[in-house]
Structure formats: C-alpha cells, structure tokens
Amino acid sequence: MSTIDSSLSAIRSADDAIATDRPESGPDSGGDRSATLGDRVYEQLLNAIITGDLPPGAKIGEVELSRRFGVSRGPLREAIRRLEERRLVVYTPHVGARVVELSSEVLLETFLVREAMEGMAARLAAQRMSDQEVGELADLLADHEQVLQGTDVYYQRDHDFDFHYRIVKGARNDLIEGILCGDLYQLLKLYRYQHRGSPGRANRALLEHKRVLGAIQDRDADLAEILMRRHITTARAILQGNLTSLSALADADD
Asked: Which CATH code fits 103-249?
C-alpha cells in the first residue's frame, strides 16, 4: 500500500469514529467581511497569474505593479507573500519574485495526490452531503452543461461554481479540505486554465462528473470514490500525453 493510500486509510478510520452531525459551514469562511485592500490586490494578482496575464516565469516587479493597481508597495508585498505561500510565486534572494513555472514532475505528482484525496472526498460526500446539497450539485452540472453548448472548453469558475470544490466541501473533512482547497486548488486552477483546450475532453469530463454525481445521489460511497479516482486518472493520462507531445516537439526543434 502506498504512503498516500495509507494516510487515506487513517483518515477513513478516524472519520468513521467521528459523529457526522457537526454544523455545516458556508462556502466562504470569510462570511460577509469586507475585503481589505490587501485582499483585493491579492485577488487581482492571482487572477493575472491564473489567466496568463502574468505568464509562468514572469518577474513580479513591485514598482510596475504598484502603478498598475494603484496601491502602495505595502499591500502589494503582502499579496506577493500570500501567493508565495500558495506556491504560485517563487522568491529567489538577490533575484526577486517570479511567477511559478509548473514542471512536468510537479504536475504529475500533484495529480497523484489529487486522485487519492478527491477519491476520498467523493466517498465522504456520498455519506455526508445533505439532500439539498446534492440537489444543488445536480443544478450546478446542469448549468455547466448549458455553458458547454457549442464549445469544447470546460472552464469552471471559482469555489461554489466548481464541481470538485463543492464535493470537497461536502466531505466535511478539515484535513482533506485544507490540502485540496489550499495550495493544490490554486495550482490546479493554473493548470486547468493553461490546458483547457484538449480536444474532446470538455464533454467527456462533464459525463464523468455526472457519473460521480449519480453515485453520490445513490449514496454509494464505494462507487463515488472509484469514479472520482478514475476521472482524475484519466485527466492525469491526458496531461502525461500532452507533456510527452510537447517534449517531442521541443526535441524536434533542437
């Protein structure tokens, strides 16, 4: 048994011993608090990185960005520090901060962790999501299907509009949520946006989402975990194929 699967077995055992009648939390732990200036700058920088406006490897120039966002360097530095914690920015002494460049190894290892953790999240969601939450999850996929009409790009908006995020929240496991909704969530958003055009993948992914939803609706925890793991495995295989193709093209250009 792998280290990841051993850890998941421990999570499963611990969760089985805990009563599940804990209070439900909303999708945004921040509640109705107004965003601070630092929060707004962070969101602007995050969006610029995810969309490629600040491309991988780009230098984070404080003077230029302060001018661009119309803020002092204090809030900007705080935003950069938070992005560094999320592993979207890397800082090198005497060089400065740059947007992360996702290596093939990091991406593939991320998908291995994602397969294990999201599979467990789907299992727990089948057991713990309320009927209302499951109904809202079905409504979300119906909205996704409408958006996908006439396009082959399956780009999900943040948080409550993201199928995977809803399932992780529905699992009600702080450890899994901390891993998947923290560093991994932002790295995967970056990957999804940059690789969102794989031919034929969008509708196939939606079909796989519907199958996971069906298992959750049936409260079939075993099947929900299997289908989610299979979904992530398929995405990882496509990623690996894309990376291999890019590597072959680079070699041909040499």
From this structure: 1.20.120.530
